# Entry
Amino acid sequence: MTLALLCPGQGAQTVGMGRDFYNAFGVARRVFDQADKALGFPLTKLCFEGPQEKLNQTDNAQVAIYVTSVAIYETLLELGKTTAPQFAAGLSLGEYTALHIAGAFSFEDGLKVVRARGQLMQAAAEAAPSTMLALLGADEPGANAVCDEAREGDILVPANFNTPGQIVLSGSVPACARAQKVAEAKGFKSIPLQVAGAFHSPFMQSAADQMANVLRDVRIDQPKIPVISNVTAKPHDSIDGIRSLLVQQIVAPVRWYQSIETLRSLGVDQWLEVGPGRSIVGMMKKIDRKANVTNYSTTEGLVAPA
# Structure
């Protein structure tokens, strides 16, 4: 058995996430309490009580998902419900969770960089109107063709390669509107996404530039297990490379299904998703219907220690 840990990204947040773990397990409670103290505001209250609109804000959602995912993982480890994984990967924000769990940086340093990342991306999104569009039924050449035809001098790029038939585009509002018509003409389905802005595109360049300064001041160690980079879909191979690729990740496409293929080629045959929601389970089943994937987003099936 070769296990890979998978950590969700932004969009997985929901009011109430982690509350059952907090109430049932001291290890989860300590993670949330440590986060509140380090951040200087009651993140736990926002996770448990909302409101959803505030939790959805990029500067809040990212750190909330990071903390909830770590709390769930630490609980599973303490209960013996999982062993330490041999590999780890995370979707966009989730790459930071995976790197922390792999030992690349401390929980509090992770809090610092994830909080900064969310704030910088929120600011970049507010600086210029932009959006995202899910494209269904297209492969990478098909998605590139839609972008090339609909771009018309604006920004329009593939941003997330989620599954072989689901690719998300990022761009200006007019370009994404044109992409819907182009996609329909090419026989693809498209769904506009309710997002703050065009993540993983040049619209985020200001966030990437400032993120380089944030990461420069954080101690990063060599991960104890291989962690897959969203940018390259290959394991990180150096500390400097981690810093560089985390900066690039903000403006580059997330090669998620390619990352899963890399892990499969490395012998992974069991998958564990930890964090709010079940988004990664859904993607895994579209990448490989027979994938042996377990999800822990609630305490269902777990027994609290006496």
Summary: The chain has two domains: 3-126+202-296, 131-193. The radius of gyration is 19 Å. Residues 3-126+202-296 form a domain with the Malonyl-Coenzyme A Acyl Carrier Protein; domain 2 fold (CATH 3.40.366.10). Residues 112 and 244 are 17 Å apart (CA to CA).
